[in-house]
Every structure is written in C-alpha cells, then in structure tokens.
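Kindly review this record before class:
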Amino acid sequence: MQPIKSEAFLTPAELASRWRWHPESIRRWARLGKLPIIKISRRTLIPLSAIEAIERDGSIDTKGI
C-alpha cells in the first residue's frame, strides 16, 4: 500500500477571495471542468497545487464565466 500524500485544499469561497472573484464563478468553473475538484459529501475542495499551477502558467481563460 502506498502512502497517501498530504495536500492542501481550498474551498470555492477561499479561492474566490484569493482571486477576487465571486464564489459562484469559481463553482461554475468547477462545474465546467476547468478546475479539478474533490467532492467529500457536500463539500467541494480544490487542490492548492492545481491553483498554483494555474497562477504560475497564467492559464486562466475567463471566457464563458
């Protein structure tokens, strides 16, 4: 059995605050598959590594949001 990596996650509200977007825009992006998400029960989490990759690469396409 492989060890589970510990990774940090943000909620859509936390990411919205970080990017200065409306929380619903973050949720919409997740529904459209533009953000990788993990659902635990009713909670949606976004891996911090994915957020940092988007910020580093500048690959945010806001068309349709």
User: Anything to note?
Assistant: The first strand starts at residue 9 and ends at 10. The chain has three helices and three strands.
